Amino acid sequence: MCLVAAGRGNTIPLKEILDQPEPTWLQWRRHLDSMQPFCRIASHTSEEVREILATLETVFQPLLPQLNLRRWAGSIYDWLTQPPLDPTRSGRVTMDNLMKLVIAALEWSYEAKAPDVQVKWLERAAELLVLRHDTLWIIDGAAPGIETDQAERAEPAQTPETQTEQVSSSSEEQQLSSSVPAEQAPLARSRKKAEVPPATSDKWTFSGDVQISLRRFEESGVARVECPGCGRVWTLSPSGGVVRFKSHDKRKTTTSHTAERWAMRETIWKVVGGENK
User: Fold this and answer.
1) Does this model's pTM top 0.85?
2) In b/e form, how buried is each residue of 75-84, taking b as 16+ CB within 10 angstroms?
3) Taking the domains of the chain in order of start, what are their residue ranges?
């Protein structure tokens, strides 16, 4: 038996644990091979990177029919052996960094409906990996684009027509999932999402799940909910265990609401108005 690990330089992950003097670890070490107890998987050379890219071409060509990753093998190798990603200057590329770069570029190229990977997306992925891999992103309050994300996940108004559309969309997605290999599914889903037509400009963008737990909503006895975007008040009923806004017209007038209702205050949903404390 031997301990096989992936690591950089002479560091062997977990070796310091096996080196402890407790009886448990002494027994572990007695079971290890006497000549080769520790084995480390080396990262990849430039030629191995080219071979990996050739394999990825075969995997993803059904989605990007003119895919030719090998012509960028030299650039990819140079990007991934920069000091931030290769601090020991081993001149080798880790599989983790290689897959992060390539898959990101493939997804962006696929969403752009390109037949081959676009070099601008490879460069963009490399820039994020090399120059910004240690960037600290500050999240303060609601995340950017949260309303757009909710709108994409939301169900339209529950009319017979939209219910039919939902069934049709669900069937198409199931067909897409069953016809596309598992390793290609993320790219296929990203293109499917990109093809969804944007909402018309006369509709308010806030629609979808209201982040109120079903238990709180039912115990409050209040069914009226104020849209945080336009201030319009709706009477909502839980559906499928969640409370949802439907897509609605932008409110053209300003009306002061005093009745008891759910409203978002400082990113938190709470009951306001009326006699409520």
Assistant:
1) no
2) ebbebbbeee
3) 3-41, 46-131, 208-272
